[in-house]
Amino acid sequence: MPYARCFTFRQPFAQIPFRRSAGSCQPLVTSRGVEVTTLRIRDFNAEDLLFARFDSPQVLEFIEAVRHADGLLIGTPVYKASFSGALKTLLDLLPERALHGKVVLPLATGGSIAHMLAVDYALKPVLSALKSQEVLHGIFAIDTQISYDDNEEGGTLDEILTERLHEGLEHFHHGLQRRLQARHKQAGGHLQLAL
């Protein structure tokens, strides 16, 4: 059976709340048979990003991975009503139609509910400029909805956030299935996928 490929962007530095919410997604997605590749901004040479070195091996590898992905989980911390500048720098390296035909689920964390609209009014227009046609309703988490224990990548999410995350990932999975069916139909076959 064909499988879907998913690419996740995760932000670095001291954004522990974001890492925990984004990290909670991967097991939920892989349990549905989706191959997941995770990228962190810190995986890149900063000069390649800042000077837009399109010929950098890391940048070329990134562009190729996005090209082969069926869907993307794009996560970011929100600060001062905007998504991360590091994420914008990375998205700027993608070709114009890089997200065409891909399912995108935005994930964001912030200090208060006041930043919730940053996904709709700041991030979604950038994703649309990259020709994403299926940007799902984003999931915004307030920092207090995510626990702070000793495990940097782990921790727990509160019940309401967990429920919203499961619901959002269910929609994401349905979008991936539609993408697989469309791709298979273009190849001249029929594909049945179980939910």
From TrEMBL:
It holds the Pfam family FMN_red. InterPro entries: Flavoprotein-like_sf (IPR029039), FMN_Rdtase-like_dom (IPR005025), NAD(P)H-dep_FMN_reductase (IPR051814), NADPH-dep_FMN_reduc_SsuE (IPR020048). Keywords: Flavoprotein, FMN, Oxidoreductase. Gene3D superfamilies: 3.40.50.360. GO terms for biological process: alkanesulfonate catabolic process. Residues 30-144 form the NADPH-dependent FMN reductase-like domain. GO terms for molecular function: FMN reductase [NAD(P)H] activity; oxidoreductase activity, acting on NAD(P)H, quinone or similar compound as acceptor. Belongs to the SsuE family. This is NADPH-dependent FMN reductase-like domain-containing protein.
